[in-house]
C-alpha cells in the first residue's frame, strides 16, 4: 500500500488547496530531534539541517525514508520476542512518528499483531515493567471535581477521537487496572495507521478507579491506584464528569470510544450516553459488526440465507450479545420478524444454555432477550448435539473450548459449518485454525480473533483463515463519523459497515477460504467504510458537515494522515532592487 495520501485540512472548503508552503516546525535546534511529530532522524536534508540548527547533530548521511524503514524492519525482526518487538515499535513512535506509521502501514500483516492483539495483551500485563514514557491522560477516582483541569493540560487543541478504558476487562485477560492503558494507545495507533486519523487528533485515556486483580496490587512495579475497584456512585460521577469535560473542550462532535469496560458497566454506559454524545463501545458494537460481516460473507460459501441459520454462542458477554443483537437486526432486514429472528439465536454461559426460567438463574436483563423456550442443557458440547447449529461462535475467552468432538459434531450435520473462534489473545482462542480444519476435514468456514497461519489439507488445498479483527471496522467508521460530523452513532451504522465490509471480499478471497479481505488491504477498507458511513449519514440526515462534498472519496483521502515527510526547507526569495 502506498500510503501516499495528500495532507488535507479541516476548512469548510473541503480541503481545496492552493500554493503549498514548507512547514515550520514549532521547535528548533536539538529540541527538534526530540519531538516525534517533526523529527525525521537521518532523513533531514542538508539544507534542513542548516536552516533548523541541527547540522552536525546527526551523522552526515541523508537517508531515504525507504532505507530508514529497512533499518527499522531489520531491528524489529532481530528482536527475540514479540514483547521486545512491541517495545521497539513504541520507542520508534516516541522518536519519529512518521517513520513509525510508515513501518506500520507498509507492513500491516507483520506489525498489527505486535502493536495490537495478541501482543498488546502481554504488553498490558507487563506494563509496569516495560514503561518508558507516559502516553495519554490518567484520570483517577480521586480527581472528581478536577477532571476538566486534567483535560485542559493536554497540549493538543483539536482532538477528534478519544479512546477511554477503566481497565476492568482487558481482552480476555480480565481486570488489569491502570495497566490496561496499552489498549487505548494501541487502538489509536490503528486509528492513524489504518484510517488516517491524524495522531494529534487522538487522545488515549485511562479512568483509574482501582483494580480487583490482587496480582497487580501486589506487584511493586504496578503504576495504578493501589486500591480495590470503586463500585460506588463515585464511579458514575467520574464518568459523567469526564464525558462533559471532553465535550466542553473539544465539542459535541468529538468521538468517545469506550473500550474494555466490564460487563456490568459496558451496556449501561452505552445506553446512558449513546443519545447524548458521539460515542460507541467497540467490544459490543465493533466486534458485532466485524463478526456479522464475516457471517454475511460466509453465506456466499454455504449458499444459505442469514435466516436459514441457527447460531450457537459460547459466551453471553459484551461481544456475544452485541453480535447476537446485530444478527437479529440483519435478519429483520431480510424480512424476518424480531421474535422469529431471536429463535435462531442460542447462547451458552457458565451455567449452561440460556433458556426461559432457568433454574440455575444467572440470566441478566441483556441475556434475557435471547432466552428461548427449551429444556436446560448444562454445557456447550451437549448444546451442539441437541440444537445442531449451523454456526458456532466463541466469545467467552475460554481457550480450547471448541473440542475435537464439538468440531466433528458440527461437521456431521453441516456441509459447511461456520466456526468463529473470536476470543483474544491467542491463548484464549476457542480453537486454532488447524484444529478446526482438521476436525472438519477442511469443511469449516473459519474465522478467529487472533491471527493463525494458513493450513494445507491432505489433498493439497491451502486454506487461509480469516481474522475477525475489529480493526476492519472501527477505524473506518470512526473516520467517517469524525469527518462528516455524525453526532450519535446507531447500531444501524455498524450494520451498514458490516454489509460494506462483506461486499469487499472477492471471489478469489472466498476460494482461499477467507471471509475478510487480506489484512494488508485494511487501509483501503477503511476508506471505503468511511465513504459508506458518510453516504449513509447524508441519506439519513444525521451528518452535520454541509455542504456535502461533491467527491466523497477525494474528500476522505485528502483528510487522511500522510506518513511521508514534509519539507522543512525554507523558500528563499528576493525583493525587487531599489
**Biggest sheet architecture:** 7 strands, mixed
Helix content: 40-55%
- The fraction of residues assigned to DSSP E strands is 5-15%
Over all CA atoms, what is the radius of gyration? 25 Å
Terminus-to-terminus distance = 52 Å
- The oligomeric status of these chains comes to single chain
**Main sheet strand line-up:** 8-7-6-9-10-11-14
**Number of helical elements:** 24
Helix and strand content put the structural class at alpha/beta
Uncertain segments: 1-20
Average pLDDT rating: 93
Shape: globular
Number of E strands: 14
List the main descriptive attributes of the protein structure presented here.
single chain; alpha/beta; 24 helices; about 40% helix; globular; disordered N terminus
Briefly say what this structure is.
The chain has 578 residues and is an alpha/beta fold.
Amino acid at each position: 500500500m502506498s500510503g501516499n495520501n495528500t495532507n488535507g485540512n479541516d476548512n469548510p472548503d473541503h480541503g481545496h488547496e492552493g500554493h503549498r508552503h514548507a512547514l515550520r516546525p514549532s521547535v528548533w535546534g536539538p529540541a527538534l530531534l526530540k519531538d516525534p511529530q517533526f523529527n525525521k532522524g537521518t532523513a533531514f536534508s542538508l539544507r534542513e539541517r542548516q536552516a533548523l540548527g541541527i547540522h552536525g547533530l546527526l551523522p552526515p548521511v541523508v537517508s531515504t525514508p525507504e532505507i530508514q524503514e529497512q533499518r527499522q524492519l531489520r531491528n524489529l525482526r532481530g528482536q527475540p520476542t514479540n514483547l521486545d518487538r512491541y517495545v521497539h515499535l513504541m520507542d520508534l513512535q516516541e522518536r519519529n512518528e512518521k517513520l513509525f506509521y510508515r513501518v506500520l502501514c507498509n507492513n500491516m500483516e507483520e506489525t498489527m499483531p505486535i502493536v495490537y492483539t495478541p501482543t498488546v495483551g502481554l504488553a498490558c500485563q507487563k506494563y509496569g515493567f516495560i514503561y518508558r514514557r507516559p502516553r495519554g491522560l490518567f484520570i483517577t477516582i480521586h480527581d472528581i471535581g478536577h477532571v476538566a483541569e486534567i483535560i485542559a493540560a493536554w497540549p493538543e487543541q483539536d482532538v477528534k477521537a478519544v479512546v477511554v478504558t477503566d481497565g476492568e476487562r482487558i481482552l480476555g485477560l480480565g481486570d488489569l487496572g491502570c495497566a490496561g492503558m496499552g489498549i487505548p494507545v494501541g487502538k489509536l495507533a490503528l486509528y492513524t495507521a489504518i484510517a488516517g486519523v491524524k495522531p494529534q487528533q487522538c487522545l488515549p485515556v485511562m479512568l483509574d478507579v482501582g483494580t480487583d486483580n490482587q496480582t497487580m496490587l501486589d506487584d511493586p512495579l504496578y503504576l495504578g491506584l493501589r486500591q480495590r475497584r470503586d463500585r460506588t456512585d463515585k464511579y458514575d460521577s467520574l464518568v459523567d464528569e469526564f464525558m462533559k469535560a471532553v465535550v466542553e473542550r473539544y465539542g459535541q462532535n468529538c468521538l468517545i470510544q469506550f473500550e474494555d469496560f466490564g460487563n456490568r458497566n459496558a451496556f449501561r454506559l452505552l445506553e446512558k450516553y449513546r443519545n447524548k454524545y458521539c460515542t460507541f463501545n467497540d467490544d459490543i458494537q465493533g466486534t458485532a459488526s466485524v463478526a456479522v460481516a464475516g457471517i454475511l460473507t460466509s453465506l456466499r460459501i454455504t449458499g444459505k440465507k442469514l435466516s436459514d441459520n441457527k447460531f450457537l454462542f459460547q459466551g453471553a458477554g459484551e461481544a456475544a450479545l452485541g453480535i447476537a443483537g446485530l444478527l437479529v437486526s440483519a435478519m429483520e432486514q431480510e424480512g424476518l420478524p424480531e421474535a422469529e429472528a431471536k429463535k435462531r439465536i442460542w447462547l451458552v454461559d457458565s451455567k449452561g444454555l440460556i433458556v426461559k426460567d432457568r433454574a440455575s438463574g444467572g440470566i441478566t436483563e441483556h441475556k434475557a432477550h435471547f432466552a428461548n423456550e427449551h429444556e436446560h442443557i448444562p454445557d456447550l458440547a451437549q448444546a451442539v448435539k441437541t440444537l445442531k447449529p449451523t454456526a458456532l461462535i466463541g466469545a467467552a475467552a475460554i481457550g480450547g473450548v471448541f473440542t475435537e468432538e464439538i468440531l466433528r459434531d458440527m461437521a456431521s450435520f453441516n456441509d459447511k459449518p461456520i466456526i468463529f473462534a473470536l476470543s483474544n489473545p491467542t491463548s484464549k482462542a476457542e480453537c486454532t485454525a488447524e484444529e478446526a480444519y482438521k476436525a472438519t476435514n477442511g469443511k469449516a468456514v473459519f474465522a478467529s480473533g487472533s491471527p493463525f497461519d494458513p493450513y494445507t489439507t491432505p489433498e493439497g488445498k491451502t486454506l487461509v483463515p480469516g481474522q475477525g479483527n475489529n480493526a476492519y471496522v472501527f477505524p473506518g467508521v470512526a473516520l467517517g463519523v469524525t469527518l462528516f460530523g455524525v453526532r450519535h452513532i446507531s447500531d444501524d451504522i455498524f450494520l451498514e459497515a458490516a454489509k460494506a465490509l462483506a461486499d469487499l471480499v472477492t471471489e478469489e478471497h472466498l476460494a482461499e477460504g477467507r471471509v475478510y479481505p487480506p489484512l494488508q488491504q485494511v487501509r483501503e477498507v477503511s476508506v471505503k467504510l468511511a465513504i459508506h458511513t458518510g453516504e449513509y449519514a447524508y441519506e439519513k440526515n444525521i451528518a452535520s458537515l454541509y455542504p456535502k462534498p461533491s467527491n466523497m472519496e477525494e474528500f476522505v483521502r485528502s483528510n487522511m494522515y500522510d506518513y511521508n515527510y514534509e519539507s522543512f526547507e525554507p523558500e528563499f526569495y528576493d525583493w525587487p532592487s531599489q
